[in-house]
User: Fold this.
Amino acid sequence: MATLIVNQPPVGGFSFDHCKRNAYLLGEANKVGSSLPTARKTGTTICGIVFKDGVILGADTRATEGMVVADKNCSKIHHISSNIYCCGAGTAADTEMTTQIISSNLELHALSTGRVPRVATANRMLKQMLFRYQGHIGAALVLGGVDCNGPHLYSIYPHGSTDKLPYVTMGSGSLAAMAVFEDRYKPDMEEEDAKRLVRDAIAAGIFNDLGSGSNIDLCVITKGNLDYIRPHEEANKKGVRTGDYKYKRGTTGVLSKVVTPLNLEVVEESVLTMDTS
Amino acid sequence: MNTRGLRSQLKDSVPVAGLCPQGAYGVQDSLRSGFTSVKNELLPSHPLELSEKNFMLNQDKMNFSSLRNIQGLHAPLKLQMEYRAARQIQRLPFLQSSNLALDTLRGNDESIGFEDILNDPTQSEMMGEPHMMVEYKLGLM
Assistant:
């Protein structure tokens, strides 16, 4: 057993030992008619917009597992650094881990250079990592932040391509959100207008896409200031019960009452001690 | 993290080591790697397996060839000499070495990747048999 790894030094990272076994199990499961459990996806609407002073990122808060809502209030806007935030769509674990790794790397890089990190650096790190894994890491991200060169907004796809745009949407509800953006976006908007636009875009995704739902989270990033508004608005309130099945006292009328006392005598009394030995 | 020269990709081809058997004489080493089947050797179990196995090698080759094109032959030669020297600083084969010098040279001490988080070799449940590993390293086996 131990001799199996004499010539191979153990390395970290992904291990592909079980891939063949998993493929075989999947084939067997499909033959019987069942299927293996799926990863939890976020089936999302995320979007970002550049306005006059900075960047606003918006996201819904529903995480789905197949056809079931797994998390009604999950947080999809991840912290990369104090001036850069990233929304993630796709497989929830992938977006979570990827953003955490890039956040750590960016922090180390900032300590090494002694400067505030730039959004382009985070973008390049993410793009190189996602391309290395050829799209098997299912993370579609909207990266936004303000650095020394101004506000920047990038969209990053799972295979590693990126776009630098003034407004982006990602996720299953991206078409609904993009429709709202295309209709009402203007360059150099004011903060309140931009917040309302992002809120409307996410609401469009929430109400028209099954994979998105619950609340709207917003993140407003300006030079030197950060506003993480969670939740900005509870678009879908869980319903309040209108009726109650408990009946009040006196609902049923009492017609007659008969009381019969039970006279019991004490016949025998014995005490049994517990066996505590 | 990645440096690419302009024409370096066209010049040097990067051969990828495949899944051929690891033992001496190119034959499967049943003692060390267990039993084998033709199907296992022909196809990788995952599309990323080959590229991940050779990732560090390919990165180094790419960086060295672009460095050679920019600064001349002396630059990669000196660096490779340093790498070779750093790679020799190791503990005994069955113990986990920190590879601190090698990491510093490569720049890995300032970055975190999946190889630091997943499947940490210091936490692996299997350990090589000490005597066999030392004999193998010394060439006595």
About this structure: The CA atoms of residues 14 and 58 of chain B lie 7 Å apart. The interface with chain A takes residues 1-2, 22, 29, 31-34, 40, 44-49, 51-52, 55, 93, 96, 110-121, 124, 126-129, 132-133, 136 of chain B (CB under 8 Å). Confidence is low (pLDDT under 50) at residues 5-17 of chain B. Chain B has nine helices and no strands.
